[in-house]
Amino acid sequence: xxxxxxxxxxxxxxxxxxxxxxxxxxxxxxxxxxxxxxxxxxxxxxxxxxxxxxxxxxxxxxxxxxxxxxxxxxxxxxxxxxxxxxxxxxxxxxxxxxxxxxxxxxxxxxxxxxxxxxxxxxxxxxxxxxxxxxxxxxxxxxxxxxxxxxxxxxxxxxxxxxxxxxxxxxxxxxxxxxxxxxxxxxxxxxxxxxxxxxxxxxxxxxxxxxxxxxxxxxxxxxxxxxxxxxxxxxxxxxxxxxxxxxxxxxxxxxxxxxxxxxxxxxxxxxxxxxxxxxxxxxxxxxxxxxxxxxxxxxxxxxxxxxxxxxxxxxxxxxxxxxxxxxxxxxxxxxxxxxxxxxxxxxxxxxxxxxxxxxxxxxxxxxxxxxxxxxxxxxxxxxxxxxxxxxxxxxxxxxxxxxxxxxxxxxxxxxxxxxxxxxxxxxxxxxxxxxxxxxxxxxxxxxxxxxxxxxxxxxxxxxxxxxxxxxxxxxxxxxxxxxxxxxxxxxxxxxxxxxxxxxxxxxxxxxxxxxxxxxxxxxxxxxxxxxxxxxxxxxxxxxxxxxxxxxxxxxxxxxxxxxxxxxxxxxxxxxxxxxxxxxxxxxxxxxxxxxxxxxxxxxxxxxxxxxxxxxxxxxxxxxxxxxxxxxxxxxxxxxxxxxxxxxxxxxxxxxxxxxxxxxxxxxxxxxxxxxxxxxxxxxxxxxxxxxxxxxxxxxxxxxxxxxxxxxxxxxxxxxxxxxxxxxxxxxxxxxxxxxxxxxxxxxxxxxxxxxxxxxxxxxxxxxxxxxxxxxxxxxxxxxxxxxxxxxxxxxxxxxxxxxxxxxxxxxxxxxxxxxxxxxxxxxxxxxxxxxxxxxxxxxxxxxxxxxxxxxxxxxxxxxxxxxxxxxxxxxx
Length: 875
Prior knowledge:
Layout: H1 12-19, H2 38-46, H3 50-64, H4 67-79, H5 87-98, H6 103-115, H7 120-123, H8 133-144, H9 152-169, H10 176-189, H11 196-212, H12 218-236, H13 242-257, H14 264-280, H15 284-298, H16 306-326, H17 330-351, H18 355-367, H19 377-393, H20 398-414, H21 420-436, H22 440-460, H23 464-473, H24 477-487, H25 491-500, H26 504-510, E1 526-533, E2 538-543, E3 555-558, H27 563-570, H28 580-589, H29 593-628, E4 636-639, E5 666-669, H30 673-684, E6 692-695, H31 705-715, E7 720-721, H32 727-730, E8 736-740, E9 742-744, E10 754-758, E11 761-764, H33 765-768, E12 778-782, H34 801-808, E13 813-816, H35 822-838, H36 843-855, H37 864-867, E14 870-873
Parallel strand pairs: 1-4, 4-5, 6-7, 6-8, 8-12, 12-13
Antiparallel strand pairs: 1-2, 2-3, 9-10, 10-11, 13-14
Helix pairs in contact: 1-9, 1-11, 2-3, 3-6, 4-5, 5-6, 8-9, 9-10, 10-11, 11-12, 11-13, 12-13, 13-14, 14-15, 15-16, 15-17, 16-17, 17-18, 17-19, 18-19, 19-20, 19-21, 20-21, 21-22, 21-24, 22-24, 24-25, 28-29, 31-35, 35-36
């Protein structure tokens, strides 16, 4: 299921209404003791218009805003007590107001009223009067065309009011870039120094629009929003009023929405402070909006136990309901319940607690008793999406699925056509539901449309964080589309869709085009095996070299096996037994030698137990297809796997007859056809390996690492050892790069996986990707877990150390899938290089023979743990 969306945060219109309710911060007034105020005071009172009056203050403000002028103005005003309608007393009143607030801010609306003529009353409505939104927008646009609007300050004021009016009227995603442009232009003129109150209003509105803007570079929009709101919060810190609370609430939301995983702690701190200030300032129902935001945030607090997270969500939601109920705001009470339903749905999905799907259904359905659908279309659409997704979890009949499809359809009707991310999520969910009902044409249309929207978002992304968020947002989207296309008999299109969805970020950095997998026979001597594993079903596409057209023979259905079954074997169930992949964490967490031995033993057993399960489910159908297609034994087979399967030793899976894929074919791995083609081209350009650059273990804790290097020196007398602390500066075009050291995969950050190649520091995959290793035929990463990639962040991508070496220019990388045994690794490498350098085998054949030799090298290394973890990425 695609990620469920959390509840709404305080909307832009709410925030704008709040910011217009407060007073302007006061600034110290100027003074000029000893000067005669009567002359500038007379000039101010008799100026022909407000623009000229403003010029007088600008020129003589030190006197006019001083205490002497203030006393004189009050004396003159007393004489005009009964003649307030005349010009002079009005001017005097305004002057006295300028002593309390910045004069530019006081005079600007008056100047605008004069120069805008008949549009002024509509553009600048009187307090308490809300003009017709369309009339207001038309008046602002017409006013901007007046010659008088050439004044930068007047133009900025009209732009601001037009933007505020459009926000209050309700905005679509396609309107937000224009609003941001108007507000940014206004902010350039209405500065904090001259117009502090207006600057606060403009900056708050700008931050609100930026944090909501999904179009364009979403990550950059959020970072820009955060920058604006942080400056605003600092400016207002300690004032303790509605503006400060409003800014903190917006800032907390922006932190929570941050593309790179969010910034939950800073979000919670900002929202909790906003809640406190709103309470002290008497903004009870605004407290409700913040409490609702905190309820949504509580569900994602991974620092707390699951039951504490959901308890926090219920507690904050109850607080929000109480705040809204105290003001009789039944609509907001309903929205709060819908948001709590979304939080329950998110909790049920994250923690695999089916009972909370029923809580979510009840809460969201109850919220529809009040018709709030017209207030915030995106919120309403996401609420419908959450409801449909939860109904599917309890669906027992086709009628249940049809009801969910209806809710998805309603959500699409409400979503802005320009909201690509929201529409892609809904289309993805509806497409899979249609697929389960065997409505294949409709399912294909939805899934392909969602894929096109993701492609559009990715094309617009200019920051790595946003790229990762885009490709990781819709789990299994392209796999689902490929699956339904195979069922429709559109096999080449299925292969192209699967290809497009995999390793897109790596393809972009390598400059590879997204033209699909055709022609299918582009890699000489390599058979492509593309497993497509989805929650609805699975299929494997098998493409031998020389294939010119894909047919039913090339598509192998996998009966009774989907992504759920794969996750149970690899990751495990949250409420059940851990899978083999998760068992490795217990090894990392061991604190004593006894705990380590016990955890390692359990991991070794878990790997061994999983191999027959994978072999029976996936290995056997693949072997049957390869055999039926007459793929000769001993040729190269490339497994183009994604997600958990890409870090699973499928080549070593035990088949029903006790053999493995690797016992018959030379197995290599690759994230996509495009990357495999690139690897083949690079490999063809390099002659037989004759030179090597060696990197050892600077910690001296790997007993056999130096043995590997000495073995290579013996085979290649010209091999050199790095001495510097920069691999890039030492590399001189060597054909082989052998790194024998410690390695760590970072499960949280794609670019954080590292190698300990030099004393006192680590080298991350992000750094390695910037190296220039052109001419390197093979990078051997003889270190722990160097073959893992960040499938938890983006299952269809290929992010980690192997990808980094491919980006740097290597043709292929020999990696490990877990924390391998030191002595077993040294023995494996000895045999591998014997095949590669002494007998002239290909890297894939040398790996195959080395693994088989180690496995059969007595009983010590017979378990898959010792030999199955070595994989070749590329050919």
